[in-house]
Fold these 3 entries.
Entry 1:
Amino acid sequence: MNWDQFAVEHLAVMAQVFNELRPRVEEVADELVRCLKGGGKVLVCGNGGSAADAQHIAGEFLNRFLMERKPYACIALTTDTSTLTAIGNDYSFDQIFEKQVQALGRHGDLLIAISTSGKAANVIRAAKAAKELGVRVVVMTGGAGGDLAPLADICLSVTCTKHTPRIQEGHLMMFHAFCELLEEKMESR
């Protein structure tokens, strides 16, 4: 492992999040407020590490982040193994999130679609299903964002590195910023 290269890439990602992506992160926080105050819910999906991130953000929304407050409606579409395996077995792994969005998504909701490459077929199909239902789509990706980025209402792409772990570190920073901004905006009187 090259610690110096690790540090350089990590710091570049942090600089991109704090500078270039900051206005879009704040825009996402405003969208989250609009969604939740309007009675909507947040749906989150991704594969592998992005699936873990989906579960992480759902836990922060449903429980609490920094403030004691009421729960915010959020569903990680990655957690119901019976649903995931039934859809994957009966239809296709490519449809595991799409079918859940079709069943659970409503106009006024928000989908956070996570794919570091922007090429995950099941996440792309979920975003397309969301668009058909009038669900706003926030895409979190890396690089050019593949076929997923054009489906975004707001796209947050870590472009300063091609390394998946660094992209995911940028996503985690943005998730935590969403949570903190959301609590500030939702709980201010």
Entry 2:
Amino acid sequence: MNAYDNSIQQYQTLNRYAKVGATVILGGSEDLNIPVGELKQSFELETTIYNRSVAELTVARAADVYDAVVAPLRPSTLILRLGQADLELFGKNAGEFAREYRELIAHVRRQNRGCEIVVVSLSNPDASQTIVAMNASLREIAAASRCSFEDVDAAFSGESDAMKETVSFVYSLGFVSQLPWKKPVHNLARILYGRRFDQINERNNNKNIDKNARRLNLTTVSFL
């Protein structure tokens, strides 16, 4: 069994215990290790969140993944963060990428008309011009499809500085700290994607984690 089939099988098993009407993340390799449980607890989010991301997931294959592991959950909100595995396709044929992405959104809406869809940009720490162009395309796709759009590289500018400081504090400690305020669901993408994945993965792979984290035995959950 390959990694793709193994992920689908694990998610289908977890779906037996999942609640319908939750928020679901559908992304690719960079999204696998989002610490959903920790962030939900830290920010006292009032929504159930499941991560159904699959490594190297392309937009063309995303509809099949949606049908297999997301549609049964009948999500109230779907966070889409796709495109990393499609950079080569986008460079050759940006129009085809946009068409496939719009078809994916239409596919979701045919099955779940009430689902709020949030399109999330790719992070671009190296200022790749291909990613700049793709993110512009994603913004246009979201607008044309009447979806929300979140720019992860601009998520914490201006009035969001306080949230950035809070997220930095949580991750610098290496474990969850309860916060005295709640954020509505529409800020969820900013909470989930406010830190660059290289920083998150570095923390997850660091063997010398904080003593408090070891005492609490906290780990990142890949398949919530």
Entry 3:
Amino acid sequence: MKHLDIKQIQEIIPHRHPFLLVDYIEDYEPGVFATGYKCVTYREEFFAGHFPQEPVMPGVLTVEALAQVGAVAILAKEKNRGKIAYFGGIQKCRFKGKIVPGDKVKLETKIIRQKGPVGIGEAVASVDGNVVVSAELTFMIG
């Protein structure tokens, strides 16, 4: 298994606080897949307004976290180093559960197709083995 700490992740993708939503990469193969984690704490800035009485991580941020893990997978390829992976689309997105403070979110994105600078990743976020979000993410390398 190949893992990446936060500094190594920042060498691959351009995201920074407060928008870097991946704490570490447990395993990856450049151009093929990446598995990472987000450790959710009550101190996350979005909990101040979403929702103060019942803090829930916004679903769109979970999709973004999955995209960032996919970006690690695709931008770790030598030919893509130093580039940016942009969102091209979100398909088949399903929200099946909540993410709350204290959760350790497993983020898995597998690159299932790529032609030139455009590709598709199959992405799943889970907490304690239960799927909370799944989606097909289209990316464009720029």
